[in-house]
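for the recovery benchmark. tokens below, seq after
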């Protein structure tokens, strides 16, 4: 798949034409220059969605999960009974969303407890756990490793990269492990690993035993990761005080897995720990000055994330948004059946807000990210002169 990006030429987005190899090279160079400038900003945030787990990784798509949980012949009879019982409307194609459906089931369960529905939910979670625990080799994780490796080259004295993801799988964690890169994810460093939000305020420094200095040397290649909807290796358990804690471990305990199914009716789940703390970190980040937010593989179907981004763009003049998606042009030309936030973000960009749209899959985007090395004074001067002349 090729890579291209869009700039506003009011009132429409005009894709860069690729009439020749020379034109294509110039466009790609222009894109990398824009990215390199954006990634020099003090605060870098990434919001990664399910699209980053497709391709070579062969993670399940939302349609795959719907088929496995609802339309599989082994489960279809039970699924049809549950759909009828909770009066879930399947007349609209967009409602065939497994996460929204399971969220609807859990909301119904809060109103009217039903053993059959509870059993159906647990079995559905077992399927999701199984599908999201797919085997991953270094070759499969090439895009994730390339993405993390380039972002990790950011100077250690700069603020740490903050990677937010709605995915349940462990692609980013495994990619970081293969690269020897340290993740601060809100869990204790000791075993068993228990969720404790104070760990997001910690960092890792390297002690210099030769030259004593009071200036800390921050370890290179450290980044923060926030799994907004939980993970296949997060589980709730009761501690000695009969309170619930979140433990990170390998298990098939679907009943106690800590996952939030993103849908319009999930706010009750979103405001319990650890999700409350993670959402708060995201909301705080997009309000910070001089912040660049990159979204990749994210379709803006989660209102509790899309709306705060939309609001922050209008109230935070120092927020830059880079949207990476494999079908930007199609979503501009045919907005039917997609999130209304694509139209909203396009309208803001047309008004001159700092939004860059890049059409590429996750792998191509990762390959074309420039290395995060500090710009030399000459490069800074060049970009000031040429950036101001465009």
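predicted aa per position
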């Amino acid at each position: 798949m090729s890579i291209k990006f869009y700039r506003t030429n009011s009132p429409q987005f005009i894709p860069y034409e690729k009439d020749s190899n020379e034109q294509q090279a110039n466009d790609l160079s222009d894109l990398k220059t824009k990215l390199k400038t954006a990634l020099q900003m003090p605060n870098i945030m990434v919001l990664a969605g399910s699209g980053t787990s497709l391709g070579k990784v062969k993670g399940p798509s939302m349609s795959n999960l719907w088929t496995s949980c609802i339309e599989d012949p082994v489960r279809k009879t039970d699924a049809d009974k549950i759909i009828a019982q909770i009066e879930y409307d399947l007349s609209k194609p967009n409602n065939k969303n497994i996460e929204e459906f399971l969220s609807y089931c859990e909301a119904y369960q809060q109103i009217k407890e039903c053993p059959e529905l509870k059993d159906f939910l647990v079995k559905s979670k077992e399927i999701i756990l199984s599908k999201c625990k797919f085997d991953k080799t270094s070759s499969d994780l090439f895009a994730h490793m390339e993405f993390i490796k380039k972002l990790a080259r950011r100077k250690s004295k700069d603020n740490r990269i903050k990677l937010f993801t709605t995915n349940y799988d462990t692609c980013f964690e495994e990619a970081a492990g293969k690269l020897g890169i340290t993740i601060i994810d809100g869990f204790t460093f000791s075993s068993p690993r228990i969720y404790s939000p104070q760990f997001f305020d910690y960092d890792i420094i390297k002690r210099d035993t030769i030259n004593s200095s009071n200036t800390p040397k921050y370890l290179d290649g450290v980044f923060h990761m926030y799994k907004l909807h939980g993970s296949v290796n997060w589980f709730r358990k009761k501690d000695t005080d009969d309170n619930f804690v979140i433990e990170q471990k390998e298990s098939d305990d679907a009943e106690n897995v800590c996952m939030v199914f993103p849908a319009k009716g999930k706010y009750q789940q979103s405001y319990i720990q650890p999700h409350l703390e993670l959402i708060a970190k995201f909301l705080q980040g997009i309000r910070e000055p001089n912040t660049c937010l990159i979204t990749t593989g994210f379709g803006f179907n989660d209102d509790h994330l899309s709306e705060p981004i939309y609001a922050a763009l209008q109230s935070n003049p120092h927020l830059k948004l880079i949207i990476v998606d494999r079908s930007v042009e199609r979503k501009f030309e045919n907005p039917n059946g997609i999130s209304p936030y694509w139209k909203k973000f396009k309208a803001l960009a047309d008004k001159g807000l700092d939004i860059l749209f890049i059409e590429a899959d996750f792998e191509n985007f990762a390959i074309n990210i420039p290395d995060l090395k500090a710009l030399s004074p000459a490069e800074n001067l060049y970009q000031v002169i040429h950036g101001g002349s465009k």
